[in-house]
Protein backbone atom coordinates (compact mmCIF):
# COMPACT_ATOMS: atom_id res chain seq x y z
CA UNK A 1 0.00 0.00 0.00
CA UNK A 2 2.86 2.32 0.68
CA UNK A 3 5.86 0.70 -0.93
CA UNK A 4 7.68 1.95 -3.98
CA UNK A 5 7.32 0.36 -7.38
CA UNK A 6 10.96 -0.15 -8.11
CA UNK A 7 11.21 2.60 -10.72
CA UNK A 8 13.97 5.16 -10.56
CA UNK A 9 12.57 8.54 -9.58
CA UNK A 10 14.16 11.56 -7.94
CA UNK A 11 13.93 12.15 -4.21
CA UNK A 12 11.74 15.22 -4.74
CA UNK A 13 9.31 13.24 -6.84
CA UNK A 14 9.18 10.45 -4.27
CA UNK A 15 8.61 13.02 -1.56
CA UNK A 16 5.59 14.62 -3.21
CA UNK A 17 3.94 11.22 -3.74
CA UNK A 18 4.51 10.45 -0.07
CA UNK A 19 3.09 13.87 0.82
CA UNK A 20 -0.03 13.13 -1.23
CA UNK A 21 -0.48 9.80 0.52
CA UNK A 22 0.07 11.47 3.87
CA UNK A 23 -2.68 14.00 3.15
CA UNK A 24 -5.00 11.18 2.14
CA UNK A 25 -4.39 9.06 5.25
CA UNK A 26 -4.76 12.10 7.52
CA UNK A 27 -8.15 12.85 5.98
CA UNK A 28 -9.21 9.20 6.17
CA UNK A 29 -8.37 9.09 9.89
CA UNK A 30 -10.16 12.40 10.45
CA UNK A 31 -13.19 11.10 8.56
CA UNK A 32 -13.43 7.97 10.69
CA UNK A 33 -12.86 9.90 13.92
CA UNK A 34 -15.61 12.37 13.09
CA UNK A 35 -17.94 9.65 11.83
CA UNK A 36 -17.62 7.31 14.81
CA UNK A 37 -17.70 10.08 17.39
CA UNK A 38 -20.83 11.56 15.81
CA UNK A 39 -22.48 8.14 15.83
CA UNK A 40 -21.80 7.96 19.56
CA UNK A 41 -23.01 11.57 20.13
CA UNK A 42 -19.52 12.68 21.09
CA UNK A 43 -18.87 15.12 18.24
CA UNK A 44 -20.69 18.02 16.66
CA UNK A 45 -22.81 17.36 13.54
CA UNK A 46 -20.67 19.98 11.82
CA UNK A 47 -18.22 17.15 11.18
CA UNK A 48 -20.72 15.64 8.77
CA UNK A 49 -20.31 18.77 6.65
CA UNK A 50 -16.52 18.68 7.00
CA UNK A 51 -16.38 15.04 5.95
CA UNK A 52 -18.73 15.68 3.06
CA UNK A 53 -16.47 18.47 1.82
CA UNK A 54 -13.57 16.03 1.46
CA UNK A 55 -15.45 13.01 0.12
CA UNK A 56 -14.21 13.78 -3.40
CA UNK A 57 -10.63 14.20 -2.18
CA UNK A 58 -9.67 11.35 0.14
CA UNK A 59 -9.99 8.21 -1.95
CA UNK A 60 -9.23 9.73 -5.39
CA UNK A 61 -5.85 10.89 -4.08
CA UNK A 62 -5.21 7.55 -2.38
CA UNK A 63 -5.94 5.58 -5.53
CA UNK A 64 -4.07 8.03 -7.76
CA UNK A 65 -0.95 7.55 -5.62
CA UNK A 66 -1.42 3.78 -5.72
CA UNK A 67 -1.64 3.87 -9.50
CA UNK A 68 1.49 6.02 -9.75
CA UNK A 69 3.44 3.32 -7.92
CA UNK A 70 1.91 0.32 -9.66
CA UNK A 71 3.53 0.54 -13.09
CA UNK A 72 6.47 -1.81 -12.72
CA UNK A 73 4.44 -4.25 -10.61
CA UNK A 74 1.82 -4.61 -13.35
CA UNK A 75 4.56 -5.33 -15.89
CA UNK A 76 5.92 -8.19 -13.81
CA UNK A 77 4.89 -11.83 -14.05
CA UNK A 78 1.79 -12.96 -12.19
CA UNK A 79 3.81 -14.64 -9.38
CA UNK A 80 5.94 -11.51 -8.97
CA UNK A 81 2.87 -9.27 -8.93
CA UNK A 82 1.27 -11.50 -6.33
CA UNK A 83 4.35 -11.63 -4.11
CA UNK A 84 5.27 -7.95 -4.36
CA UNK A 85 1.84 -6.35 -4.12
CA UNK A 86 -1.28 -8.47 -3.93
CA UNK A 87 -0.33 -11.01 -1.26
CA UNK A 88 0.22 -8.41 1.45
CA UNK A 89 -3.15 -6.82 0.63
CA UNK A 90 -4.92 -10.17 0.83
CA UNK A 91 -3.18 -11.03 4.09
CA UNK A 92 -3.86 -7.62 5.65
CA UNK A 93 -7.52 -7.84 4.68
CA UNK A 94 -7.78 -11.32 6.20
CA UNK A 95 -5.95 -10.79 9.47
CA UNK A 96 -7.27 -7.31 10.20
CA UNK A 97 -10.84 -8.25 9.31
CA UNK A 98 -10.51 -11.00 11.91
CA UNK A 99 -9.03 -8.61 14.48
CA UNK A 100 -11.80 -6.09 13.88
CA UNK A 101 -14.42 -8.83 14.24
CA UNK A 102 -12.89 -10.02 17.52
CA UNK A 103 -12.59 -6.50 18.90
CA UNK A 104 -16.14 -5.43 18.07
CA UNK A 105 -17.49 -8.75 19.32
CA UNK A 106 -15.89 -8.07 22.70
CA UNK A 107 -16.39 -4.29 22.77
CA UNK A 108 -19.42 -3.65 20.58
CA UNK A 109 -20.53 -0.20 19.51
CA UNK A 110 -24.26 0.25 19.04
CA UNK A 111 -23.58 2.21 15.86
CA UNK A 112 -21.51 -0.57 14.25
CA UNK A 113 -23.29 -3.90 14.79
CA UNK A 114 -22.06 -5.26 11.44
CA UNK A 115 -18.46 -5.21 12.69
CA UNK A 116 -19.24 -8.11 15.03
CA UNK A 117 -21.38 -10.03 12.53
CA UNK A 118 -19.83 -13.43 11.62
CA UNK A 119 -21.51 -13.29 8.22
CA UNK A 120 -19.73 -10.05 7.41
CA UNK A 121 -16.43 -11.66 8.39
CA UNK A 122 -17.06 -14.64 6.11
CA UNK A 123 -17.84 -12.30 3.22
CA UNK A 124 -14.81 -10.06 3.80
CA UNK A 125 -13.15 -11.19 0.57
CA UNK A 126 -16.29 -10.82 -1.52
CA UNK A 127 -18.28 -7.94 -0.03
CA UNK A 128 -16.10 -6.13 2.51
CA UNK A 129 -18.35 -4.12 4.82
CA UNK A 130 -15.68 -2.20 6.75
CA UNK A 131 -13.13 0.50 6.05
CA UNK A 132 -10.72 -2.24 4.99
CA UNK A 133 -12.47 -2.29 1.62
CA UNK A 134 -9.59 -0.22 0.20
CA UNK A 135 -7.32 -3.27 0.46
CA UNK A 136 -9.85 -5.38 -1.42
CA UNK A 137 -10.31 -2.72 -4.09
CA UNK A 138 -6.59 -2.18 -4.60
CA UNK A 139 -5.98 -5.91 -5.02
CA UNK A 140 -8.77 -6.09 -7.62
CA UNK A 141 -7.40 -3.01 -9.41
CA UNK A 142 -3.96 -4.61 -9.68
CA UNK A 143 -5.48 -7.76 -11.16
CA UNK A 144 -7.56 -5.75 -13.64
CA UNK A 145 -4.55 -3.67 -14.64
CA UNK A 146 -2.47 -6.80 -15.18
CA UNK A 147 -5.18 -8.44 -17.29
CA UNK A 148 -5.58 -5.29 -19.41
CA UNK A 149 -1.84 -4.70 -19.78
CA UNK A 150 -0.91 -5.11 -23.43
CA UNK A 151 -4.44 -6.19 -24.32
CA UNK A 152 -6.49 -3.00 -24.04
CA UNK A 153 -5.27 0.48 -24.98
CA UNK A 154 -5.00 2.81 -21.98
CA UNK A 155 -7.40 5.33 -23.52
CA UNK A 156 -10.13 2.69 -23.66
CA UNK A 157 -9.46 1.70 -20.05
CA UNK A 158 -9.64 5.33 -18.94
CA UNK A 159 -12.77 6.09 -20.97
CA UNK A 160 -14.69 3.10 -19.67
CA UNK A 161 -13.56 3.74 -16.09
CA UNK A 162 -14.51 7.43 -16.34
CA UNK A 163 -18.02 6.60 -17.57
CA UNK A 164 -18.49 4.04 -14.82
CA UNK A 165 -17.17 6.50 -12.23
CA UNK A 166 -19.50 9.26 -13.42
CA UNK A 167 -22.48 6.94 -13.04
CA UNK A 168 -21.54 5.44 -9.67
CA UNK A 169 -20.66 8.82 -8.19
CA UNK A 170 -24.18 9.94 -9.01
CA UNK A 171 -27.01 7.53 -9.77
CA UNK A 172 -25.85 3.90 -9.66
CA UNK A 173 -25.28 1.64 -6.64
CA UNK A 174 -24.85 -2.09 -6.11
CA UNK A 175 -25.11 -1.80 -2.33
CA UNK A 176 -21.55 -2.90 -1.56
CA UNK A 177 -19.05 -0.58 0.10
CA UNK A 178 -16.15 -2.09 -1.84
CA UNK A 179 -17.72 -2.68 -5.25
CA UNK A 180 -19.37 0.73 -5.29
CA UNK A 181 -16.04 2.22 -4.26
CA UNK A 182 -14.21 0.36 -7.00
CA UNK A 183 -16.64 1.63 -9.62
CA UNK A 184 -16.17 5.18 -8.36
CA UNK A 185 -12.40 5.22 -8.04
CA UNK A 186 -10.89 2.86 -10.61
CA UNK A 187 -10.43 5.79 -12.99
CA UNK A 188 -8.09 7.53 -10.53
CA UNK A 189 -5.94 4.43 -10.14
CA UNK A 190 -5.75 4.18 -13.94
CA UNK A 191 -4.84 7.87 -14.26
CA UNK A 192 -1.93 7.24 -11.92
CA UNK A 193 -0.96 4.13 -13.85
CA UNK A 194 -1.26 5.41 -17.41
CA UNK A 195 -0.75 9.18 -17.04
CA UNK A 196 2.16 8.93 -14.63
CA UNK A 197 4.50 11.04 -16.77
CA UNK A 198 1.93 13.83 -17.06
CA UNK A 199 1.21 13.81 -13.33
CA UNK A 200 4.91 13.90 -12.50
CA UNK A 201 5.45 16.79 -14.90
CA UNK A 202 2.71 18.75 -13.12
CA UNK A 203 4.41 18.06 -9.79
CA UNK A 204 7.96 18.52 -11.09
CA UNK A 205 8.23 22.06 -9.67
CA UNK A 206 6.28 24.17 -7.20
CA UNK A 207 3.34 25.98 -8.77
CA UNK A 208 1.87 28.14 -5.98
CA UNK A 209 -0.46 30.13 -8.22
CA UNK A 210 -1.84 27.00 -9.85
CA UNK A 211 -2.16 25.33 -6.43
CA UNK A 212 -4.10 28.28 -5.04
CA UNK A 213 -6.32 28.46 -8.13
CA UNK A 214 -7.05 24.73 -7.97
CA UNK A 215 -7.95 24.98 -4.29
CA UNK A 216 -10.31 27.90 -4.93
CA UNK A 217 -11.90 26.07 -7.87
CA UNK A 218 -12.34 22.91 -5.81
CA UNK A 219 -13.87 24.83 -2.92
CA UNK A 220 -16.18 26.79 -5.20
CA UNK A 221 -17.27 23.65 -7.01
CA UNK A 222 -18.04 21.97 -3.70
CA UNK A 223 -20.15 24.90 -2.56
CA UNK A 224 -22.06 25.01 -5.84
CA UNK A 225 -22.76 21.28 -5.72
CA UNK A 226 -23.91 21.50 -2.10
CA UNK A 227 -26.18 24.50 -2.68
CA UNK A 228 -27.71 23.35 -5.96
CA UNK A 229 -28.01 19.63 -5.24
CA UNK A 230 -26.61 18.70 -8.65
CA UNK A 231 -24.47 15.84 -7.34
CA UNK A 232 -27.01 13.40 -8.80
CA UNK A 233 -26.14 14.53 -12.34
CA UNK A 234 -23.65 12.05 -13.85
CA UNK A 235 -20.23 13.59 -14.28
CA UNK A 236 -20.56 16.41 -11.74
CA UNK A 237 -18.79 14.67 -8.86
CA UNK A 238 -16.25 13.19 -11.26
CA UNK A 239 -15.28 16.72 -12.32
CA UNK A 240 -15.10 17.82 -8.68
CA UNK A 241 -12.97 14.77 -7.87
CA UNK A 242 -10.61 15.65 -10.72
CA UNK A 243 -10.29 19.15 -9.29
CA UNK A 244 -9.54 17.57 -5.92
CA UNK A 245 -6.92 15.39 -7.57
CA UNK A 246 -5.26 18.48 -9.02
CA UNK A 247 -5.34 20.13 -5.59
CA UNK A 248 -3.72 17.08 -4.04
CA UNK A 249 -0.92 16.86 -6.61
CA UNK A 250 -0.14 20.60 -6.67
CA UNK A 251 -0.20 21.03 -2.89
CA UNK A 252 1.77 17.83 -2.31
CA UNK A 253 4.43 19.20 -4.66
CA UNK A 254 4.53 22.42 -2.62
CA UNK A 255 4.58 20.72 0.78
CA UNK A 256 7.33 18.33 -0.33
CA UNK A 257 9.60 21.35 -0.60
CA UNK A 258 8.93 22.64 2.92
CA UNK A 259 10.01 21.61 6.40
CA UNK A 260 6.90 19.47 6.59
CA UNK A 261 8.44 17.03 4.13
CA UNK A 262 9.96 14.77 6.82
CA UNK A 263 6.76 14.02 8.78
CA UNK A 264 4.75 13.82 5.56
CA UNK A 265 7.29 11.43 4.04
CA UNK A 266 7.12 9.27 7.16
CA UNK A 267 3.33 9.17 7.14
CA UNK A 268 3.20 8.55 3.40
CA UNK A 269 5.52 5.57 3.69
CA UNK A 270 3.54 4.07 6.57
CA UNK A 271 -0.02 4.28 5.32
CA UNK A 272 -0.75 0.56 5.68
CA UNK A 273 -0.18 0.29 9.47
CA UNK A 274 -2.22 3.46 9.97
CA UNK A 275 -5.01 2.35 7.66
CA UNK A 276 -5.57 -1.07 9.19
CA UNK A 277 -5.40 -0.07 12.87
CA UNK A 278 -6.69 3.47 13.30
CA UNK A 279 -10.40 2.61 13.38
CA UNK A 280 -9.80 0.20 16.27
CA UNK A 281 -8.07 2.96 18.21
CA UNK A 282 -10.91 5.38 17.49
CA UNK A 283 -13.48 2.77 18.53
CA UNK A 284 -11.53 2.14 21.73
CA UNK A 285 -11.51 5.88 22.44
CA UNK A 286 -15.29 5.98 21.95
CA UNK A 287 -15.73 3.04 24.33
CA UNK A 288 -13.55 4.63 27.01
CA UNK A 289 -15.27 8.01 26.75
CA UNK A 290 -18.69 6.39 27.04
CA UNK A 291 -17.57 4.16 29.92
CA UNK A 292 -16.45 7.15 31.98
CA UNK A 293 -19.65 9.03 31.19
CA UNK A 294 -17.92 11.75 29.20
CA UNK A 295 -20.31 14.46 28.02
CA UNK A 296 -18.67 16.88 25.58
CA UNK A 297 -19.56 20.54 25.87
CA UNK A 298 -18.34 23.90 24.69
CA UNK A 299 -15.66 23.58 22.02
CA UNK A 300 -14.97 19.91 22.78
CA UNK A 301 -17.48 18.41 20.28
CA UNK A 302 -15.80 20.47 17.56
CA UNK A 303 -12.22 19.64 18.51
CA UNK A 304 -12.53 16.05 19.70
CA UNK A 305 -12.34 14.43 16.22
CA UNK A 306 -9.09 16.27 15.55
CA UNK A 307 -7.59 15.08 18.83
CA UNK A 308 -8.82 11.50 18.45
CA UNK A 309 -7.60 11.25 14.85
CA UNK A 310 -4.10 12.39 15.88
CA UNK A 311 -4.09 9.91 18.77
CA UNK A 312 -5.32 7.14 16.46
CA UNK A 313 -2.56 7.77 13.93
CA UNK A 314 0.13 7.94 16.61
CA UNK A 315 -1.16 4.81 18.35
CA UNK A 316 -1.32 2.92 15.04
CA UNK A 317 2.31 3.78 14.34
CA UNK A 318 3.34 2.75 17.86
CA UNK A 319 1.48 -0.56 17.50
CA UNK A 320 3.28 -1.16 14.21
CA UNK A 321 6.69 -0.26 15.64
CA UNK A 322 6.21 -2.59 18.61
CA UNK A 323 4.82 -5.40 16.47
CA UNK A 324 7.75 -5.27 14.04
CA UNK A 325 10.10 -5.95 16.96
CA UNK A 326 8.13 -8.95 18.20
CA UNK A 327 6.52 -12.10 16.76
CA UNK A 328 3.48 -9.91 16.07
CA UNK A 329 5.21 -8.66 12.92
CA UNK A 330 3.10 -11.24 11.09
CA UNK A 331 0.24 -8.73 11.31
CA UNK A 332 1.96 -6.63 8.66
CA UNK A 333 4.07 -9.08 6.68
CA UNK A 334 3.07 -11.61 4.06
CA UNK A 335 3.41 -15.09 5.62
CA UNK A 336 5.63 -17.58 3.76
CA UNK A 337 2.72 -19.85 2.87
CA UNK A 338 1.25 -17.09 0.67
CA UNK A 339 4.42 -16.72 -1.41
CA UNK A 340 3.87 -18.32 -4.82
CA UNK A 341 7.38 -18.12 -6.19
CA UNK A 342 10.14 -17.83 -3.66
CA UNK A 343 12.53 -16.72 -6.36
CA UNK A 344 10.43 -13.69 -7.27
CA UNK A 345 11.54 -10.27 -6.17
CA UNK A 346 9.33 -8.56 -3.57
UniProtKB/TrEMBL annotation:
Its main location: membrane. It is a multi-pass membrane protein. The chain crosses the membrane at residues 19-37, 57-74, 86-109, 121-144, 156-176, 211-230, 236-255, 275-294, 300-323. It is found in: Cell membrane. GO terms for cellular component: plasma membrane. InterPro entries: Acyl_transf_3_dom (IPR002656). Residues 15-317 form the Acyltransferase domain. Belongs to the acyltransferase 3 family. This is Acyltransferase. It comes from Clavibacter nebraskensis. The lineage of its organism: Bacteria, Bacillati, Actinomycetota, Actinomycetes, Micrococcales.
Amino acid sequence: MSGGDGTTITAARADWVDAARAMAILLVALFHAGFLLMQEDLASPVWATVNSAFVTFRMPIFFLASGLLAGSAVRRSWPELWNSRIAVLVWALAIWSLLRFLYFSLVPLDSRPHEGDPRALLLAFVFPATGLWFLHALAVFLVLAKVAHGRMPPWIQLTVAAVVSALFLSVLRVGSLSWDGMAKYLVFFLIGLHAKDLVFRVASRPRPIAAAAALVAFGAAGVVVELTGISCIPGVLLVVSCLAMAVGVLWAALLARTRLVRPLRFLGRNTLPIYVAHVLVIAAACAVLEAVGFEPSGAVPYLLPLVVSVVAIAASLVIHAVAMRTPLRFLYRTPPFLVLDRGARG
